[in-house]
Amino acid sequence: MPRPLSGRLVIATHNPGKLREMQELFAPFGVEAVSAGELGLPVPAETGHMFAENAAIKAHAAARATGLPALSDDSGLCVDALDGAPGLFTADWAGPNKDFRAAMQRVENELRKRGVTAEGDRRAHFVSALVIAWPDGHEELFEGRVHGKVVWPPRGDRGFGYDPMFQPDGLAQTFGELSSEEKHGIDWSLPEPRALSHRARAFVKLAAGCLKRA
């Protein structure tokens, strides 16, 4: 049985774009979300071999440091023709300065090295693993995925990370061309709430198990 969540929550991230998305997702539930960056917490070494493992490392570190429940998202872009890369190293490809324009160029360069043209096999998916950890060591895991393809050149200046080069199935726009509501908005009025982004899809599962609307 999932453990209910309320009150104050630490979002174990130093990424302002990711924090903004998580705060928007939690807004209807009356949960006060503060980031690890705002609290001055260090970034733990991500030594896991799966998204869920790295999310758990970050969430438990933040929960132990603050005495509060902590949520971590570990997510990444997996390109089929690159054998799933950048995958776990999605953020690393952006370098120490978090230059995602350079990271997107690297994805394209690697595809071209493998002979993948603009019309070739550019299938990809985003993965999000959300882990909530409590100070007593309890944790809950929720995962979401969205499938699509990578495009070149990137389109749009919304979102963050690789959003401008990812076009989800069924849409003509990239994540970088969608508003925040279009990308990760959730229609809570439906019996089975629908969401587009990988992070929002994981959050729908989290909300069903751990949250009550304010």
Structure, described:
- The protein has about 210 residues and is an alpha/beta fold.
- The chain has a single domain, classed as Maf protein (Alpha-Beta Complex), CATH 3.90.950.10.
- About 30% of the residues lie in helices and about 20% in strands.
- The chain has helices at about 15-25, 50-65, 100-115, 180-185, 200-210; strands at about 10, 30-35, 70-80, 125-135, 140-150, 165-170.
- It has a six-stranded mixed beta sheet with strand order 2-1-3-4-5-6.
- The longest helix has 16 residues, at about 50-65.
- The chain is globular, with a radius of gyration of 17 Å.
- Its cofactor is Mg(2+).
- Keywords: Hydrolase, Magnesium, Metal-binding, Nucleotide metabolism, Nucleotide-binding.
